[in-house]
Amino acid sequence: MTAIVKSLRLSTVPWSARLGLLIIAFYIVVAVFAPWLAPYGEAEVAGGEFEPWSSMFVLGTDGLGRDMLSRLIFGARNTIGVAFVTTALAFLIGGAGGMLAATLGGWTDEVLSRIVDVIMAIPRVIFALLLLTIFGTGMVNLILIIAILDSTSVFRLTRAVSMNVVVMEFVEAANLRGESLWWIIRREILPNILPPLISEFGLRFCFVFLSISALSFLGLGLQPPTADWGSMVKETASLISFGDITPLLPAGAIALLTVGVNFVVDWMLHRSSGLKD
Predict the structure, then answer these.
(1) What is the pLDDT averaged over residues 49-61?
(2) Is pLDDT larger for residue 116 or for residue 237?
(3) Do 23 and 257 contact (CB within 8 A), yes or no?
(4) What is the DSSP letter of 222?
(5) What would the DSSP string read from start to end of 101-116?
(6) Rounded to 10 degrees, what is the CA torsion of 19, 25, 29, 32?
(7) What share of the chain is helix, strand, coil (3-state, %, to 5)?
(8) How far apart are CA 34 and CA 265, in angstroms?
(9) What is the share, in percent, of the chain residues with pLDDT greater than 90?
(10) First vs last C-alpha separation in the chain
């Protein structure tokens, strides 16, 4: 516990990770307080189409006359919120499956591993487009489909690190004592594989975040009038031809959060590896 507290002291955190934490905190504040920070409503038509930047519309308006600044702020809540829920669900599915496969072994491991291999054999974006076309583009379908597809990577990582733990003497001792499967997973395996899983959560969040933005850009992600950074890039892309940088704003928001999360993940990977600064 002392080592964990020491690792979290601000003085031991590199500047890149501090910057990443600051960026993440900023996005969280914007997402939580979006209704109070946005000057207009999420889908409110406040002016004419594609109005230039002005005191009334700081970042101009889109093709329907909606304030771009307000859409960016609400987009933080929608895009980040959906990505976080999707990532958490992917870890719940893939993590549980990976630990079960490693602990039980035998046919359970074979069946789960082969299912994961089949899913991963199909390009993820193409598979997601196919499933969303079949089942519809609602938010629930989007979360479930992306979570299931991304849970395959989580499964493989969790199974790999769990396999190194289940052969340890303390796990064998727990089996000999007659401890239940759930007790062994919760008390013996999970605490010993937590560092790489936490690091993977950050990386997986970035992948999910970018996947949702890409699907929204293609018209199969979050649906209008919900504000989403991927769809906002698509809606304002024509302005690039006129030298307007408005389409770069949601793209920049996506890139900045991705960089911030990766800064923190790099630091966490460094700490969990046991390397010295």
Answers:
(1) 84
(2) 116
(3) yes
(4) S
(5) HHHH-HHHHHHHHHHH
(6) 140
(7) 75, 0, 25
(8) 26
(9) 21
(10) 20
Q: Beta-strand (E) ranges in 129-254?
A: none
Query: If you count them, how many residues does the chain have?
Result: 277
Using a 10 angstrom Cβ sphere, with 0-12 exposed, 13-18 middle and 19 or more buried, the burial of residue 178 is: exposed
Tokens 């969790």, residue located: 158
Q: Are 94 and 150 in contact (CB under 8 A)?
A: yes
pTM: 0.83
Residue corresponding to tokens 């018209």: 219
Q: What is the pLDDT of residues 18-37, one digit of tens each?
A: 899 999 999 999 999 998 99
Return all residues near 264 (Cβ < 8 A) that are at least 6 apart: 17, 20, 21, 24, 202
d(CA 203, CA 209): 10
Q: Which amino acid is at 41?
A: G
CA separation for the pair 72, 82 (Å, rounded): 15
Q: Cα angle at 262 between 261 and 267, to 5 degrees?
A: 105
Side chain identity, residue 248: L
For the record, the structure tokens of 91 come out as 């870890």
C-alpha count within 13 angstroms, C-beta hemisphere, residue 42? 17
